[in-house]
Design a protein that fits this description.
globular; single chain; 68% helix; 0% strand; 10 helices
Length: 215
Amino acid sequence: MPPQKLEIFYLSWEAAFDHAPHTEEVTMITITFFFWTFVVIFAIIGAMRGWAQELLVAFSIILGLFVITVLGLVPVVRDMVGLGFVNTDGSIITGLPATAFYIRSALIIALTFFGYQTPRIKNERIKKATTRSGQLQDTLLGIIVGGINGYLVVGTLWFFLIQADYFLDFVSRPTGDIQESANQIIELLPPMLLNGNAIYFAVALAFAFVVIVLL
């Protein structure tokens, strides 16, 4: 083929390619799917670990929410961690700085990590209570408590992201059909329920359980 015709053919092919409709669609995972996926993953972990050890993780997360609540009342560090979770009218406190989001998230993740570490204790009663028995009821309870832990961890981080106005580029607000189901979940996220006096009651209940059952 002569060079002139070859050049014309190339230019025509390039123009057709540039103007061709792009049929490829980018598939994105919704935040609600992400939430429930991790709830299931945590439930599977709970089945393998047993309910007693999973309760220690739940108490660790509740402790994290308690620490954030208390630090929010201290003027020196209030700007670093943010003030509370919910307004008096029940609406979510937004405008959380990115620094506060990272500090809160790091605290929750750190306490969750330490909660999953098997405690090295010499008390035989505590060892027996936190050791997986292998029975069916232990597995089933482990699934339930593990799923609750997934709800506590991922739900809390999601709530912090809402407070920070979804500032992360790779996470977008729920829209369209997803928004309605997302709003139903948001109303039941941990900081929405463990807000105000409820967090103090939850910490007291967790402490009482440790003292009465494990000690």
